[in-house]
Design a protein that fits this description.
The chain folds into four domains: 2-72, no CATH class; 96-190; 213-291, no CATH class; 308-390, Orthogonal Bundle (Arc Repressor Mutant, subunit A). The protein has 14 helices and twelve strands. The protein has helices at 2-25, 35-43, 45-55, 96-109, 117-129, 142-158, 185-190, 206-209, 227-244, 255-262, 264-276, 308-322, 330-343, 356-370; strands at residues 28-30, 59-63, 68-72, 114-116, 161-165, 180-183, 248-249, 280-283, 287-291, 328-329, 374-377, 380-383. The strands form four sheets. It has a three-stranded antiparallel beta sheet. Strand 2 and strand 3 form a beta hairpin. 30% of the residues are buried. Mean pLDDT is 88; it is low at 397-407.
């Protein structure tokens, strides 16, 4: 009986770990977008709510009947290098115009559970016309229609908007395209992960938008806060980074955070949290790394096949690692890509126009920086410690052992 109970406990722990990583990858997860993961989240929702509160301080809202789960990943240091991406084509980051239209569209969709692409466009035109700091939306302009479609597709990808008749992309060619939508108003409201509505911020104070009162001023070493508050902030701030960032360098942590990570209690808490999430904690002299062996908790992988920028990133990383610890001039890396263009004429065709090597180098280096592999400063690029994982070494031939096996 004890063996059966142990097996059931391991199975439940594995399910919870899968649910945790699914929520990390998709903080807004719906029954329609991921039915198997949603079923696990509903099954273990009580334990998951407690786990995220204890280890990260993030609030998890699970609504089985409404069909969604929302992980409120608040942070006092929101990542600026992880923008929302366009669901179409190369998944380029949303620009300012698309972010603006996304917010306006989300607000207009709250008018009712069913609407059409034309009705929302009309309301978008009216809403943008009365906002002095927003350029008016004009559905006759192809650029505006593309930005509008991207905003709608982002909401569809999040699972709060569903095209029940017609296709959103049809609006790219015809402003009179007919598309009928079903709106999940409850899920739409949950997209906002802040503690208070931005409209209530005092004089647009963005710091107040991310403020978390439960910690007080624990991040300030000189602040008078309780030991419980400070330890909670230390644990949550480090675990958040371990679960969210590809690598956590000790140099990027505060002195108090480094001391907590090096303490017996701190190391045990961090290791337990990472393990319960189904990951492996790597501890190095330079920092910490939570490895997801199944790659469930990430929305971007490196290296990733099929990406020209990813291929260029590996090529440039080889040169940057070889020069470590000396920084490599960015101009040298651009020339390296230009030489590659000449050697392989069929490669990277979309970057063959004027300035192509420069543009490709920018994208490749941005990718490497997002994964904590390089640091860009001025006109130089320097390899960071984690880049050694991708270093090319000499092949080692291991001779087979000759002997007799024991019976």
């Amino acid at each position: 009986m004890s063996d059966l109970r142990s097996e059931l406990d391991r199975e439940r722990a594995a399910e919870r770990a899968q649910a945790i990583r699914a929520l990390l990858a998709r903080p807004m997860l719906t029954r329609d977008t991921s039915a198997p993961d949603f079923a696990l989240i509903v099954r273990h929702r009580t334990e998951l709510v407690a786990w995220f509160d204890t280890n990260t301080g993030w609030r998890l809202v699970v609504e089985p009947r409404a069909g969604y789960a929302r992980l409120m990943k608040t942070s006092q240091r929101p990542p600026v290098d992880r923008p929302a991406r366009r669901p179409r084509g190369a998944r380029n980051p949303l620009d300012r115009r698309r972010y603006t239209l996304l917010c306006l569209v989300a607000a207009e969709l709250l008018a009712g559970p069913v609407t059409t692409i034309g009705i929302v466009a009309e309301r978008l035109t009216q809403a943008s016309a009365v906002e002095p700091d927003i350029a008016a939306f004009d559905s006759s302009r192809h650029d505006d229609r593309r930005a509008y479609v991207d905003a709608l597709l982002v909401l569809e990808e999040l699972g709060v908007l569903t095209a029940v008749d017609g296709n959103t992309d049809a609006y790219l060619q015809h402003a009179d395209a007919k598309v009928l939508y079903r709106v999940d108003s409850a899920g739409l409201v949950r997209l906002l992960a802040t503690r208070q509505a931005p409209s209530r911020l005092p004089d647009g104070d963005l710091v107040a938008l991310t403020h978390e009162p439960r910690y007080g001023d624990a991040q300030d070493p000189a602040a008078e806060v309780s030991d419980e508050q400070r330890n909670r902030w230390l644990r949550h701030s480090i675990v958040r980074r371990l679960l969210d960032d590809p690598v956590v360098y000790l140099d990027d942590l505060t002195e108090a955070q480094r001391a907590y990570a090096a303490s017996i209690t701190g190391r045990r808490m961090l290791r337990t949290a990472v393990t319960e999430a189904g990951m492996l904690l790597e501890e190095r002299a330079e920092g910490l790394l939570a490895v997801d062996p199944d790659a469930l908790a990430t929305d971007e992988r490196f290296p990733a096949g099929g990406s020209v920028a990813g291929q260029a990133a590996l090529l440039l990383l080889d040169s940057v690692v070889a020069a470590r610890p000396v920084a490599v001039a960015k101009e040298q890396l651009v020339r390296q890509l230009a030489d590659r263009f000449a050697v392989v004429p069929q490669w990277a065709r979309t970057y063959r126009s004027d300035g192509g090597p420069q543009r490709l180098a920018d994208e490749a280096l941005a990718l490497l920086a997002r994964f904590g592999l390089v640091q860009r400063s001025g006109g130089g690029v320097r390899a960071l410690a984690a880049a050694a994982r991708y270093a090319i070494g000499e092949a080692t031939v291991v001779s087979p052992r000759i002997g007799r096996s024991r019976r």
